[in-house]
Amino acid sequence: MNVLKPNQRATVYTLLERGSTQREIARITGIDRKTVRSYQRRWQAGQSNSPGVATGPDAVGAQIAPPRPPASPPASIPVATSLCEPHRDFIEAQLRLRRNAMAIYQDLVDSQGFAGQYNSVKRFVARLRHKEPEQFDRLSFLPGEEMQVDYGEGAPTLVPGTDRYRKPRLFVATLRYSRASYRCVVWKSSQQVWAELHERAFRHFGGCPQYVVLDNLKEGVIKPDLYEPELNPVFAATLAHYGVVADPARVRDPNRKGTVEHAIGHTQATALKGRRFESIEAQNEFLAHWEKNWAAKRIHGTERRQVQAMFEEERPHLKALPLLGMQYFDEAVRTVCDDSCVRVDHSSYAARPAAIGSKVRVRIFAQRIQIFDLHTGALLRSHPKAERPGTVVLPQDERVFNPSRETRLILRQAGQIGEHAARLCQLLFAIEGRVGQRKLWGIVGLVRRYPARCVDTACAQALEQGIYSYKRVQALTESLFADALNAIEAQAGGDPVAPTTAVLTQQHGLIRDAHEYGDLFAHAAATATTTATATAATTHTTTQGGRA
Predict the structure, then answer these.
(1) Which long-range contacts (CB under 8 A, 24 or more apart) does 438-441 make?
(2) Residue 257, CA atoms < 13 Å, CB-side half-sphere
(3) Are residues 296 and 307 in contact, defined by beta-carbon separation less than 8 angstroms?
C-alpha cells in the first residue's frame, strides 16, 4: 500500500465520512483507487497507531484528521449500486450466449431504456464474467502402468557435410510413476524411426509399461479419433510385439501428457540450453550422461523422492521384454493379377486364397513377404523373399492354365508374327500357365525392334533346340538380325567382318582439278568485294541527300 501524506489521509477520511465511493474519491483526489480501498479498510476497522498523542510524521495528520469512527461502519453510509443491477437477469442471459459488453450495452439502450454509460455495463459484465482459476486433478498411477512420449527440439548440432548448425528432433519417453526418462535426438522422423525410438526406450528401461500415451502426430496416429484412433501399421505392430497398448491423447489436450511435456522443458532449459554439438552422436552421449548423473539423482518436486529410487521401485513391475527385437517392414497395397500372384520388386508371389482382381496388403520384410486380407487383416500367405528379380514363387498345383482374355490377345499377336512364334507361345503357356504370360509379352514385344521374320525364325530355332525361354529367343533374334545386316553389307561390296581404315580417293571422274577450284574461289572473292563497294557508295549518297 502506498503511504499518503497527512493532508491526503485527512481528505480521504473526510470523504469517506461523507459517504463518497472509492471511485469518487479517486477522481477528486487523484489517488489510485487501490490505495483508497486500503485506507477505507483501515478507516472502517478503526485501527490507530497509538491511543495517545501522535508524534513524528503522523502528528500533523492527528491534529487535522477527525476522530476515528467505531469498528463497525455506521448504518447510515450508503452503498453504491450499479445502474445495471435491475437488468442483471438480461445481462446474464446474454453472457450465456457469449455476447460481448458492447452488444449487451446496445441492446439495453434499444430495448430496456438503459440510461447509463457503456463503462458501467463493461464493469458490470467484467464482475459477472469473473471465473475461478482452472483446476486440474492430480492423477496417481501404479508402477509400470503408463509411459508418456513426445517430440521436442534438441540443441544446435552440426549438419554432416556442411558448416551450419540445425536443431534435431528430441524424443523423450517418461515413466509416469517414477518420472525416469529416456532421451534421444534424431535428424529425421518417420513411421519406422518413431517405432524404433519406442523400442530403444523399452530396452533402456529394461521392460515395457502397460500402455503408452502419445500425441496425435502422423508418425504414430494416421487418423485421430476419441474412441478408435487409427495407428500407423509399423508403430502398431511394434507395440503389439512388445505387448503395449497405445492411448493417444485427445486432440488439443496436452495436459493429458503433462509429465513428458515437463520433461522436455526440463531437458531443454537445464541440459541443452546454450550448448552446441559437433555430431548427433555427441549430443546423445551427453544426454545419456546427464540423465544418469543428474536427472535420475534429482529429488522430484512433487513426490519429494529421488527419481532413481522411484525407478528401482517401479522396475520389477514392468513387463518382460521379448527375446527377439521387432522386425521392421514396408507395407503396400497390391492387386492380385490374373495368375493369382502379386508383384513385389519385379517378382511374383502366390496370393491364394485371395481372389483374382482383389486388393491385398503386403508386408515386405528383409527376408520374407507376408500377404494379408485388406479388410479383415487375416494373414493369407507368407513366402521367403526372392533373391533375384523375376522369380516366381508359386506352387505348380496353384498355377492357372485356362486362358484369359489377355492370353488370347497375346496368342493372336504371336500368330501375326508367324507360325513358329504362335506355336512357341502356346507351348510356354501350356507349361507355365498364366504366370508365364510375362514371357509371352516379351516374345511378342521383340517385333518392335526387329523384323517379324527374324523373330519367327528365332522361335523356330528355339523349338528345335527344346529351349522354351524368352531370353533364348531374344538372343537368337539378335544373332539373326546381325547376320542379316552383315549379308546386306557384303552384297554392297563392304567387308563388315574385318573393317579396314578408310582411304581418301584422289582420282575420280567427278573430282575436278585443284586449279579449277582455285579460280572458282578467286571469282567468288572478287564478286563479294565489288558488291560491298557498291553498297557503301549507295549508303554514302543517301546520307548526303538526307543532310541536304
Answers:
(1) 439/469, 439/470, 440/407, 440/410, 440/411, 440/414, 441/410
(2) 30
(3) yes
Task: Take residue 272 and report the three cell numbers written for it.
Answer: 541443452
Is there a contact between 375 and 332 (Cβ–Cβ < 8 Å)? no
The overall pTM is greater than 0.90 = no
pLDDT tens, per residue, the chain with 548 residues: 568 888 888 888 888 888 888 888 888 888 888 888 888 888 888 744 444 444 444 443 444 445 555 444 444 445 568 889 999 999 999 998 989 999 999 999 999 889 999 999 999 999 888 766 666 677 789 999 999 999 999 999 999 999 999 999 999 999 999 999 999 999 999 999 999 999 999 999 999 999 999 999 999 999 999 889 999 999 999 999 999 999 999 888 877 899 999 999 999 999 999 999 999 999 999 999 999 999 999 999 888 999 999 999 999 999 999 999 999 999 999 999 999 999 999 999 999 999 999 999 999 999 999 999 999 999 999 999 999 988 999 999 999 999 989 999 999 999 999 999 999 999 999 999 999 898 999 999 999 999 999 999 999 999 999 888 899 999 999 999 999 889 888 887 655 545 444 455 666 666 666 666 666 667 777 776 666 566 555 544 444 444 44
Which residue in 104, 106, 97, 109 sits closest to 124, CA to CA? 104
Report d(CA 252, CA 267) in Å as an integer. 23
Residues in Cβ contact with 213 at an 8 Å cutoff, skipping those fewer than 6 apart: 146, 147, 148, 149, 247, 248, 249, 256, 257, 260
Structure-block grid coordinates of residue 20:
463518497
The Cβ-side half-sphere exposure at 84, using a 13 Å CA radius, reads 24
Q: Which residues pair with 149 in a beta bridge?
A: 173
CATH number of the 330-398 domain:
2.40.50
Contacts of residue 10, defined as CB under 8 A and 6 or more positions apart, other chains included, come to 61, 64, 65, 66
Amino acid making up residue 274: G
Q: Domain 146-317 classified CATH 3.30.420.10? A: yes
Q: How far is CA 409 from CA 440, 441, 455, in A?
A: 10, 10, 18
Grid coordinates representing 196?
524404433
Total length of the chain: 548
Work out the widest C-alpha separation in the chain, in whole angstroms: 149
Distance CA 481, CA 475 (A): 10
- Alpha carbon distances (Å) from 49 to 40, 54, 451, 534: 16, 8, 121, 124
Alpha helices, DSSP H only, in 371-468? Answer: 405-417, 419-432, 437-445, 452-465
